[in-house]
Here is the input.
Amino acid sequence: MKKSILGLAVLSAIPMFTTTHVLAADEAANSIEKIQVTGSRIKRTDMETSSPVTLIGADDIKAMGASSIDGVLQKMTAASGAMTNPAVNNGSGGNARVDLRGLGAQRTLVLVNGRRMINSGTGAASTVDLNTIPVSMIKQVEVLKDGASAVYGTDAVAGVVNIILKDDFEGLDMNLNGAITGEGDADETSFDITMGSSFDRGNVVIGLQYTDRGDASQADRDFSDCPIEEGDDGFYCGGSSYTPFGHVWADNADLQGQADGGWHDYAAENDAYNYSAASYLYTPMRRLNLTGIGHFELTDETRLYSEFTYSKRWSTQQMAPQPVWFDFDYDVATMGDSLVANGVADGEAISYGRRMTDIGPRGYEQVVDTVRAVIGLDGGFDNGWGWDTSVVFGRNDAVDRATNLLNMGSIQDEIAAGNFNPLDQNDWTANNLAEYNYTENNSGGSQLLVLSAGLNGEVMELPAGYVGFAAGIERREEKAWYVPDSLTSQGLANDPRVEPTGGRFDVNEAYVEFAVPLIADTAFADNIDLSAAVRAFDYSTFGSDETWKLGLTWRVNDELMLRAVRSTAFRAPTVSELYQGKSPSFEQVNFPGAQDQAEVTVGGNDSLTPELADTVTAGFVYAPAWLDGFSMTVDYYDIEIENSIASVNNQYIVENCLDAATGDYANAGTALCQSANINFNQSTGRISFNNQLQNIGSEQTKGYDVNFKYAFEAVGLNWRTGLDVTILDEYIVDSGTSTIDYTGVITSGLGSYAKVKSNFTLNAAGDNWDAQYQARMIDGLDSYSCLDADSDCMVPTVGTVMYHDISGSYILNDTVSFNAGVNNLFDKQAPYYSGNNDSNTDPYTYDVLGRRFFAGVNVKF
Here is the structure.
């Protein structure tokens, strides 16, 4: 098979992953007649297509010291937004997600060996938890940064991550890896073993991986040891107004309780509770992954194949003790006169809040089981056509617990009966509260069944070559559920009532795809190929529609290739988005006279309809003959989503539905404010509103991906260097009532959208060793909270942040090798910005651990 310089360039991986062996990939392509590339179901003789595909090899993962694939994918320059990772303590549920283009993890499709992975996590999960993917079993990862709904169906809006597992391994491979930070915390140990054997008509591979990850505390880093507030005199350690010993709000009083039973006027600078000290900076987890992959040739034309993966995760988050709040009428006769001297009259309505340091911090624990099984048959006909039929079944079951909670319904009943005095510190002791202390137990899960059958082959010969095609049918059934704790579901705990979730849907789909050679072997075109795909679908929840894709590849010569794709994409609402029960979420907001957290009611909406997207990518690949080993790619992308499913920005609701000068309601006649049904209790400073999911408008993002790489030999060594850059030109969200431009912005809960992100890699390799240097750059960002009035913020922007990593490996002999490295070599501290997220920074964007050492040993036979 002829292979041009350009062909090798198309196979290039992201430069930071320079240990991917491009030539090895080429040799693999030569060893088989045809291969299937992510983004197409047509089998081809090489990987050159109209859509850009990035390869990440197993060696790349090892060079980064990653025990989970999220640690690699989240460092891609094309990844941004709110990617859940171990540094997200509040609300992460122990999950790990990838978010291409910052469009949300739900708009990135995750495949395993080209087939759907079961959504997993806690509750009725809507996205794939990357913890379920066994890193030790990964052969390579193919990342398609292009819409591919016509090929794969729903969710492939921003792109596709196809994780390809080892299916032809022979021998025994064992790894022992460890990591620890320069502060001596967040230690991690991982052990894996992979065994494979081939026989006359097949191969079987079995893998086991166990990972144990330790924690780090916000109290152990200078940037996160207390919540930083900005005052007239500068920064100070602030925190929550829900404080130990109680906080009383009355008509003419704002009082802080004291240990001796007294009260004084509340002052945030002195009395606010430091909730950071008890919170994790990095969350612990234990994880077990089991994998089995096999294939057996039943006949010379028919093969039986199967895949099985099982993961079990035990994860934990820790947050400050529970804040409780309730209202009652002050009764001097039963509660004493301690408030009288502070201006509170007998019989006056009181709002009471308290931080339950009396019983200790809250713990959140998850036990998650995820299983996925595939069985199928494939083969070929005498005319060269191939066929494939398979069944994919997946199931996710999870139990999540919250410990050290108080049954406030029972306590309020006791207050009403005169048996519990909330103003007496002795009634709040741990011993007295033991009978009200409970553990919340919730359960949930999801299930997936996919039946599919397909054909692929060549239908006719044209002057420029053969027309390739693929066609098939699929049926997919999904269901999901979430059962909250009985106290929570009845609204008897301190938090408002949480409703259960439950629902299902099914979809029938059919697709067809063509690859048409238009021109070949002319003066200005070695060849020009047209690709086309269309998929029709019929959902039980909203009906039928179709999506399509057109691509053009123009190989001008051996050095230059032009490519472009135009497509439509869609994302159907998930079971959770449709049927999730209402529940409270406490979100950061800024408003004069208000508490810093608002009670936001979130939940699903069974009237949701699919998101629709138009995507365009266009670019070129250049690999000049005059500079052997050099290649460059430039790709433009434009993704426009209509009818987007989302909740409105919480801060935007507050700013538009309340008058900042008076605190009164504003814009009450607008659809936004009517839906939000906002309430602001100016006596207590408590804001509450509704922010359930809606089809609320549109989103558009556009930009450029640029890649340079150069491989050469010098001073007796093999060198490879590369630069990968993503330039965000625009990311605009239209909520239906306003337009928000997130370009170059960092938020307090949606992550960040840097205008420029880059990864630079330099690799040197000798006969039995290699060393690598990586530099990751995140461009400066403006705080969303300060866009309208940056003069009110002390730190309205974040400067450019650069991380430096080094790693290396040494082959001792044919059996033993070692690897080691340091991430964040210069111990770069996570930056502070006004309007920050958790830990006074953004754990979705920045490294919170600091310098981290890792090392491992590999033994193979």
Remarks:
- The first helix runs from residue 5 to 10.
- The chain has a mean pLDDT of 91.
